[in-house]
Specification:
The chain is mainly alpha-helical. The protein has a domain at 5-54. It contains two helices and no strands. The two termini are 32 Å apart.
Length: 74
């Protein structure tokens, strides 16, 4: 069984980047829009990575071997 450590480490990294986006966004009329856009983009990238990672670690269907086609091997 695979360890959840990579998903937790990457989640911590994404949270740190989201905190930086929150704290270091320049003041201005569009500050809230910029913060929201950055944080949403980071979260979407994390979710896409996590779904891809988990699909490879725990596939829904087991890999199947092709039937042996004689003694020929390539």
């Amino acid at each position: 069984m695979a360890s959840p450590t990579p998903a937790v480490i990457v989640f911590g990294l994404v949270l740190a980047l989201m905190a930086c986006a929150w704290l270091f966004t320049r003041k201005g009329p569009n500050q809230t829009l910029i913060r929201t856009s950055l944080m949403l983009a980071l979260m979407c990238c994390y979710l896409m990575w996590m779904v891809t990672y988990l699909a490879q670690v725990h596939p829904l269907e087991r890999p199947r071997r092709a039937p042996n086609m004689g003694s020929e091997s390539f």
